[in-house]
Amino acid sequence: MKRLIKVFGLAVIISLLFSSLNGLSSTTAFADALTPEADYYQVNRSATPSLSGRSLDLENGANRAESAADKIYQGLDTTKDVVGKTEQRKQVIEKARDHASDRLKEQSERAKSAQNPNSLDPNERNFLKNIQ
């Protein structure tokens, strides 16, 4: 049962973080209701230029990823109150936020160390374009 809760918690957090990459706008709306401060993706896609038409600014993307890693803890208590009915769930939520924060910091470091946007993996480039 513990493993199921951990897997579910991690899956929810990861899907919330990467929802704009795969077009799940309903998940973004759910995240917006729980923690509006943590919505790093633009919800209104019609006002956003095409990703292929935008150039990638590595420094800006790295800074935004680092900022997102720090801000991911905003609203943690609210999320724990709404979703985390048991202590185990609360621990899973916190552990998932820690994991997500670590991943965002890693992404920021990769962007800072990249010589140019083409030296990054295509998925990394798309992620950085989404958050800048």
Description:
The chain is mainly alpha-helical and 132 residues long. It is built from 7 helices and no strands. The protein starts with a helix and ends with a helix. Mean pLDDT is 77; it is low at 23-33 and 39-48.
Run of helices and strands: HHHHHHH
User: How would a crystallographer describe the biggest sheet?
Assistant: none
Tally the beta strands. 0
Radius of gyration: 15 Å
Distance between the termini: 39 Å
Strand coverage percent: under 5%
Question: Segments where pLDDT lies below 50 for 5+ residues?
Answer: 23-33, 39-48
**Average pLDDT figure:** 77
Summing up helix and strand content along with how strands pair, one would put the structural category as: mainly alpha
Tally of helical segments: 7
Helix content: 55-70%
Per the principal axes of the C-alpha atoms, what is the gross shape?
elongated
How would you briefly describe this protein structure?
By secondary structure, the protein is mainly α.
Summary tags:
elongated, 67% helix, 132 residues, mainly alpha, 7 helices, single chain
Topology readout:
Layout: H1 2-17, H2 19-22, H3 25-34, H4 58-71, H5 76-82, H6 87-113, H7 122-131
